[in-house]
Known about the structure:
Chain A is an alpha+beta fold. Chain A has helices at about 5-25, 55-60, 75-100, 105-130, 165-185, and strands spanning about 30-35, 40-45, 50-55, 150-155, 155-165.
Amino acid sequence: MAKKFSVGSMASLIGAAAFLFASIKFPWWGMKFYAPQYMEGLDIIVYPSKLEGDIDIVNGLNHYIGMAPFSNESFPELQYLPGLIIGMAILFIIIALLRRKALLYVPAVLLVAGGAIGIYDMNRWLTKFGTELDPKAPIELEPFVPPIIGENILANFVTHSYFTTGSFLLGAAFLLTLLPFWLERRK
Amino acid sequence: MKKWVPAASGLLAGFMAATVFFADFSTGPKGTASNDTANKSNAEKVYVPYGELDEYYMLSSGGHSGQLFVYGLPSMRKIRTVPVFSPDPATGYGFDTKTKEMLGGYTWGDFHHPAISETNAEYDGKFVFANDVANNRIAAVDLSSFHTADIMEMPNMGGPHAGTFVTQNTEYIVMPTRFSVPIGKEYAPLDEFEDKYKGVVSMVKFDQKKKELDLAYQIMLPPWSYDLSDAGKKVSGDWIVMTTYNTEFATTNNEINASQNDRDYIVLLNWKELEKKVADGEYEEVNGAKMIDPRKHKGSIYAVPVAKSPHGVDVTPDGTRFIASGKLAPLMTVFSFEKAFEAIKAGNFETEKFGIPVLPYDKVVEREVDPPGALGPLHTQFDDKGNAYNTMFISSEIVKWKIATGEILDRTPVHYSPGHSTATEGDTASPDGKWIVSLNKIAKDNFLSVGPSHPESMELIDISGEKMSLTYTAPVDPEPHYAQTIHRDKIKTIKIYEKDEKREHSVWKQEDTRIERKGNEVHVYGIAMRSKFVFDAKAKRPDEIKVNQGDKVTIHLTNIDLDQDITHGFGIMDHDLNYEVQPGQTSTIEFTAEKAGTFPIYCTNFCSALHQEMSGYLLVEPK
């Protein structure tokens, strides 16, 4: 008979699945722009399914440096990301119910891989928007790559990039996928 | 002969000559520059540091400028001029189709008395109403945008000076006439004044959802002049009081002839009763207005005698009394609503005037308040401690007195000749009692000289303590009459116009812009954004408008920069046309391209670093 993992580990994986579900409803990442005339800051807020914040205003300002305008339609990921997360959460629940020790690695590995691909993808977009600037733009700017996290200075703007609630929920889910390894350790 | 005599008399003569030529015996303002401590504490009271905001909005009428002036208190900084009855090139008010139609061809108005909309006799901060004494108009300004929302012209009126006042839940905006005219302003010789001329009160309704004014009914009164009015509160909530002058029926040299009677009248109207009678069909249709004649429908109109030619009449915050300011009689008369109601109930009438029952003066009066030497009382404001504040036009001062006893508590000089004053929330059911601003008619040399045209002056007086304390003075363009001062928390403004894709003629995407031609009509559906105009996205030059001479051109422009304070202007050279679109706003101008030629178009309201580049061309091809 295949080795089964404990009820504690099962609960832990179901918890991880719950955090994954929850993360869909929260923003994952954001960028805030400050300038002398934007003391209150302009926001780009990224959910797994949509962009929110002052997208129109940011686009309006970006045209001065020749950055392409962006919207929900610019990022195909926003179409399938929620489905992917839900699928992953369901898989976690199935594994939890099967309680097979051999499958215990799957959730953690999936999250590490997903996280790495996600960060690569974000960097790809940031590079694309920051470097493919329209050469005819009124203000000529050296191509740049905004950081995924932290501060950057661009003309009169100071930008702050940050991970937020949704990402923290993903982090919590990841910790919950690790917890069973400790629970199932050889005594 | 003693030798010192000539020396001493020489010295004395020299001293006298010096005194005659150089000494200053004038009684004008000395200032308090030497009084450092007082000045410092006054400066602190009015200083609003960067990042903080004033506590009150003062909404001041702009008199014959036809505008509304918005000031912040206590800093007395002017924040904005809102055009109401006259065109304003800076904002395009009166230039774009909607506001041009609203102005109805007038280029000026005479705005005297603002009235903020009220709920339970408290300012609710939603709208402010304005009267145009010159052209019989009433306007509503939306306080969410500080834009004029509607203007209506009223028939049968001779200048609604005694408005604008609202009933305690803004059921009606009351507009009594100043000059009497024959109904419909038909020709009638002044010899027939008493019979043919009428004084009319307009009762106006305002639909806050549709933002539309509507004339509910009019009241026909004798051809007296109605000077000012106020609506009752609480116990007196169904009533309106109005002062009258020229009960002499003078038709010439009114300065003398309208000042003969020792007593004029205060008219009391029960608007609830009148409303019922109008609803019952007891009116005549006169030039599109429902006219009710009090002579035919008694029980809703009374008069009470008052010292000659009164000016203001103001209802106390608790609604139990009304106070008439004497103007030509140097006293304030306190009347009791309760006493008036009793006299009405008892049918205790002295006589009838023009079919209006007159209540006996001594049965309604509570007291006469006559501060020694105080001359020319005009208007009353209130604080939160049961005190009244009266402006004295002739003796240039404000007198503070206790309503319940008539005791004079304090007097402070103002510079000079105050008309109205405005206390913080000072004519509501619960005044704040912090500040009063004296709206002075004459400034003389209180400010840097700009030649013979002097500004008016506004003096800020601290009324929070037992004694009034003159704190600050600011100049102001002609001419505030009345102002109302409302706490900033009551006014909720919008930052931008919301994006409304269903709005008529609006375009929100560059690619949807277009120029459509129908015969000799050209319709432009364009956008303004930082930093360009797009009229037709598919054209070789999207910012060019090309028409034929004689074409009727209509330009709909939407500002798609949904960003606070990013307003775009639109000026066409040599066409006397300029207007603006505020963030998210769609506005339209229409004109006929009469002149053939080439005319630059440019953004007139500085918008961005590339504002100078925000331009295009109007090309008018000759016939």
